[in-house]
């Protein structure tokens, strides 16, 4: 069985930038999964620091409102990996999931760490790179010209163990 992980699509992240294209593609993938009755699992990052927009008591920690009703399951995490000290593995085992599709936010952290952790746990992983977004920029890393999504996609593709596709490739192969 296939399942979709929707990582960190939370108001505290989405409201911080212009992510129209990424959100549109995310919604397309989510809709595909919902229409074919495949599980959609939302992952929420919860920060412990009071000032964080992803603090549990903050509205920013909530799933971005237009996406809220899509979730079949919701799992909270406190690290970049959606597997570390969460019930994700057990949920996937209960569902009989063998293949994970990954979309969401913080491409170079939460999405990438989760993709690697999923592979390490024996899942087939498909990373839909243009259906991810990040709040960081080339300036965040002091690396002029860095295209974060392209870089992460290239690294994961070079691993030869995680399938990296753009939305058009996903739609052609899996829709």
Number of DSSP strand runs: 6
The topology string of helices and strands comes to EHHEEHEHEHEH
Measure the end-to-end span: 14 Å
Could you name the CATH class? Alpha Beta
Describe this structure in words.
The chain is an alpha/beta fold and 175 residues long. It has one domain: Rossmann fold. Helices cover 35% and strands 21% of the residues. Strands 3-2-1-4-5-6 form a six-stranded parallel beta sheet, sandwiched between helices. It is globular and about 40 Å long. It starts with a strand and ends with a helix. The mean pLDDT is 94.
Give me some keywords for this one:
single chain, 175 residues, alpha/beta, Rossmann fold, 6 helices, 6 strands, globular, hydrolase activity, Isochorismatase-like_dom, hydrolase, Isochorismatase-like_hydrls
């Amino acid at each position: 069985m296939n399942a979709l992980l929707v990582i960190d699509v939370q108001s505290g992240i989405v409201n911080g930038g212009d992510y129209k294209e990424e959100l549109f593609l995310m919604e397309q993938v989510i809709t595909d999964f919902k229409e074919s009755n495949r599980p959609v699992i939302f992952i929420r990052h919860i920060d412990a620091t009071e000032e964080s927009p992803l603090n549990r008591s903050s509205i920013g920690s909530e799933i971005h409102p237009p996406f809220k009703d899509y979730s079949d399951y919701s799992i909270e995490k406190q690290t970049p990996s959606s597997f570390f000290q969460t019930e994700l593995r057990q949920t996937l085992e209960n569902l009989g999931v063998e293949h994970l599709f990954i979309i969401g936010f913080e491409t170079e952290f939460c999405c990438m760490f989760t993709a690697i952790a999923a592979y390490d746990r024996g899942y087939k992983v498909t990373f839909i790179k243009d259906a991810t977004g990040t709040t960081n920029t080339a300036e965040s890393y002091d690396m002029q010209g860095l295209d974060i999504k392209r870089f992460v996609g290239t690294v994961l593709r070079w691993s030869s163990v995680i399938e990296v596709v753009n939305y058009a490739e996903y739609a052609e192969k899996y829709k």
